[in-house]
Amino acid sequence: MLTTKEAIEKRRSIRKFKPDVIPEKHIEALLEAARLAPSGCNAQPWRFKVVRDPETKQQLADAAYQQKFIESAPVVIVCCADIQGYLDGTVSGTQDLGKIGALEDRIVKILQKRTNDIKTINVEQMAPKISFNVAIAIEHMVLRALDFDLGTCWVRLLDEKKISDIFGWGNNIYVTALLPVGYPAETPAPRKRKPLQDLLIS
Ligand SMILES: Cc1cc2nc3c(=O)[nH]c(=O)nc-3n(C[C@H](O)[C@H](O)[C@H](O)COP(=O)(O)O)c2cc1C
Fold first, then answer.
1. DSSP track, 34-90
2. How many domains would you assign to the chain?
3. Is the residue at 198 inside a domain?
4. Is residue 192 part of a domain?
5. From atom 29 of ligand 1, which residue's Cα is the shortest distance away?
6. Rounded to whole angstroms, how far apart are CA atoms 177 and 131?
7. Which pTM value belongs to this model?
8. Residue 41 lies inside a defined structural domain of this protein
């Protein structure tokens, strides 16, 4: 088993996959890693669709601007934000956190007021914010995949509407990213990173 440091250093975006079948328990372990991610107000707005069917994978690749490598992955996890689920989860999550004393009453009130003030759902405004939470869950899966020698690649260059239409989802489900998963058929060298001093704001 890798340490967290080793996983962070070893991870690469993988865009070539072997066709080998992934044991179901490994996909379940990835989803479990996502489930345990932190989220604002513990709202847990992430939702996942696990796709194995070649025809649907092909449609996903097409909806991701023809990024054909996506369909070569044995599994593609469609990672979504549930907008209404976020609002509902915020209310119940905030109450729970207040009850156990993790949040001050004052903060609970501010969070609940903010949620109550949302009268109509504006997907375009809300989806990016809610997707922060989904992104954390996705990265949990990305890192956990390394425990099973699985490779992944974040895919955000996509047409959300086209993907929603494949599954007949309504406005409430916002597609945050695709995560193709499979055994790597390539071993990429580390990609360039900026030196730390370039990241620090003086
Ligand atoms: C939010 C996000 C969106 C990305 N979208 C795509 C994508 O649509 N297609 C793709 O091939 N790679 C995509 N990537 C992968 C990046 O290109 C990759 O992380 C970056 O080049 C660094 O390489 P590394 O992941 O191997 O370290 C995405 C990564 C992130 C975090």
1. HHT---GGG---EEEEEE--HHHHHHHHHHTTT-GGGGGSSEEEEEEEEHHHHHHHH
2. 1
3. no
4. no
5. 154
6. 9
7. 0.96
8. yes
| pLDDT tens readout for residues 52-111 | 999 999 999 999 999 999 999 999 999 999 999 999 998 899 989 999 999 999 998 888
Other beta carbons less than 10 A from residue 140's beta carbon: 20
Residue 75's CATH number: 3.40.109.10
Q: Is residue 24 part of a domain?
A: yes
Atom 7 in ligand 1: residue holding the nearest Cα: 155
* Ligand 1 contacts CB of residue 153 (under 6 A): yes
155 lines ligand 1 (CB under 6 A): yes
Q: Is the CB of 16 under 6 A from ligand 1?
A: no
Residue 36 Cα to ligand 1 midpoint, Å, equals 23
Measured in angstroms, how far is the CA atom of residue 125 from the centroid of ligand 1?
A: 24
Atom of ligand 1 nearest to the CA of 69: 11
Using CA atoms, how far apart are residues 190 and 192, in angstroms rounded to an integer?
A: 7
Host domain of residue 163: 4-186
Judge if the beta carbon of residue 167 lies within 6 A of ligand 1: no
